[in-house]
Amino acid sequence: MHKYQERFIKFSIENGALKFGNYTLKSGRVSPYFFNTGAFNSGRSIWELAKAYADTIVTSNIDFDMIFGPAYKGIPLGTSIAVALQVKHNIDAPVSFNRKEEKDHGEGGKTLGAPLKGEILIVDDVISAGTSVNESHTLIKANQARLVGVIIALDRQERGHGMLSAVQEVEAAHDAQVLSIIKLSDIVEYISNLDGFSEQIAAIKKYNSEYGTTT
């Protein structure tokens, strides 16, 4: 695990973005942990999140021309990540976003920011059903651009609609690489080196035996 991943997990726990307990997910599954990027809601915490995304992008060596942030979460995510890429890595990445409702006055259109063109990297927080990626991909294709990757904060490494994980389903559907700052296995590795997390680790392993995937 990279140092930036360890820092991100540590900060996520301290900041309350990563919690342990019993949480009912939209799928109806009762998860022993919960990750909420909404807890990154101050200048410092947003900067920590953006740096972790930027470090992941650079470490992956993925080739892309611009960032696309699906509304609404993707707007602050994409903006802050672009700033972190410039400040930390001297990468000046254009950013584009979609509008929830098409604008029929002024400049109009379905997007704002830089024109959608070239090879696109979508930024999001998590992938569950893949709806956001599907909608974004349709818009990207409509602009004659190409989706090359998606980056998320956490890969839960659990099954989606079938035996594949939600991440694997998106990769297969769109022939695009999905990157994540951390995976569930990274969380387990990190808390295994801390005192007082034996019950949480056991609960995660039990949950993973029922819903998890190996990658």
Report the count of strand segments: 8
| Average pLDDT reading | 91
Taking Cα atoms only, what radius of gyration do you get, to the nearest Å?
Answer: 17 Å
Give the amount of beta strand, in percent: 15-25%
Question: What is the makeup of the main sheet?
Answer: 6 strands, mixed
Give the CA-CA distance, first to last residue. Answer: 15 Å
Strand order within the widest beta sheet: 5-4-3-6-7-8
Which consecutive residue ranges, at least 5 long each, have pLDDT under 50? Answer: none
What structural class do the secondary elements suggest?
A: alpha/beta
What is the 3D shape? Answer: globular
Keywords:
two-stranded antiparallel sheet; alpha/beta; 25% strand; 8 strands; globular; 215 residues
Structure description:
The structure is a single chain. The protein has 215 residues and is α/β, with parallel strands linked by helices. It is 42% helix and 25% strand. It has helices spanning 3-15, 43-60, 74-89, 131-142, 166-174, 184-191, 198-211; strands at residues 18-24, 30-35, 66-69, 95-103, 109-113, 119-123, 146-155, 177-183. A six-stranded mixed β-sheet has the order 5-4-3-6-7-8, with helices on both faces. Strands 1-2 form a two-stranded antiparallel ribbon. Helix 2 packs across helix 3 (74-89). It is globular.
